[in-house]
Amino acid sequence: MADKLYEKRKTAALEVEQVARAILKDGDRANLDALISTLVNDFVAAPTPNHRKGGLIGLAAVTVALAGAADPNLHAIVPPVLRCFTDADQRVRYYACEALYNIAKAQRGVFVAHFAETFDALCKLSADADPNVQNAAHLLDRLVKDIVTESVEGFDVATFAPMLRERIGVLNPYVRQFLVGWIAALDSVPEIDMLTHLPDMADGLLNMLSDPNREIRQQADGALGDFLAEIKGEGKSAHGNADLGALVDILVKRCRGSADEFTRVTCINWLREFVSLAGDSPRLVPHFASIIGAVLPCMSRTESKVRETSSRASDELLAKAVERVREIRVGEIEPSGGLDLPGGARGADGARGIRREGPDAARGASMVRRVVRRKSGDGAAAFPRRRGGERRSRRAARLAPARFGRGGDARDARGRVAG
């Protein structure tokens, strides 16, 4: 088991497998536990690398022998193997990946119970400096993905989401690819609801859109596109599970603070789609102010794509706002506490929560109606022109006192010589 040659260690592991099968056949659990303990303490925890390599392949052999057993003792086998993922010897790390691959392949559905610690170890190993270890980690990663997607009933996405949130901000490109791969894999399973946990992932995915690596940008953009398609395509049942308000806050923050053109355009497009969903999800209407505050400044950006996208978003916001105004009949608004107008008092309609302001309120309501009619009618200006200021200016010019020019002549307010 501790020989420096791999073939000899492999031959010894096959003998260990036969011994484990014989013990299992006799039903002697004490001997089986003693065998596992010997491999862990005398080999996997040994100071010499060859002993650790032999112990790893021996544990994998025991697990293969226990395939189909009611209690495969994975709680005693998996943790020692995962500890070798951080071994100083790169060959030990490689054989640890190989051993865990064989353990997961032999146990499959039972192995899902150890997903959390396996995911954490794989996330760290995905950025290993040795390319052979990276390749072994990728093979193990694909197998674990297959096992999780096959055994959905044993997978807890609520436990996975916090782990993902803790790591989604990592800048290492290998870790980013690893995380996006898991997000896409789990989102492709209909039984797993990833939309509920999208706010935990959205900011990290948006941050990846500015990654120098083109492949990472494409993967992040693809994952975001899939999420947006789900929100749009499944109607109320879809965005009933997604916290759209939290997503709007994340998008607005990125739209205002990101210096990357692609990130800004993506955020604006998401906000445009959310505006179109306002009819199905009235919860979005209170967020219109923050959406407008993020979109309008982008219309003055130097990037043409940002300007064009924000301009379209602004037009759609205005159209949606006018549509909402037309749905509200002035004088029939019934907030619980009444309209908070300065100087107002409840009148006869106080029970309905409406404040009447006499002639001023009537003029205000009339102006709102004119705005809606003009915007939805012949395309005239949206706001009535005010001429009172012009009349006051002309009146002030006539009544202004005379002033003198350089030659002593009296001049009126317009600069003409008086008399």
Describe the structure.
By secondary structure, the protein is mainly alpha-helical. 64% of the residues lie in helices and 2% in strands. The chain has 18 helices and four strands. A two-stranded antiparallel ribbon has the order 1-2. Strands 3-4 form a two-stranded antiparallel ribbon. Helix 5 (90-107) runs parallel beside helix 7, helix 6 (115-125) runs antiparallel to helix 7 and helix 10 packs parallel to helix 13 (244-257). The radius of gyration is 35 Å and the shape is elongated. The termini are far apart. Residues 329-365, 375-386 and 399-411 have low confidence and may be disordered.
Structural class: mainly alpha
Rg over alpha carbons: 35 Å
Unreliable stretches: 329-365, 375-386, 399-411
Order of helices and strands: HHHHHHHHHHHHHHHHEEHHEE
Strand order of the largest sheet: 1-2
Count of helical regions: 18
Major sheet description = 2 strands, antiparallel
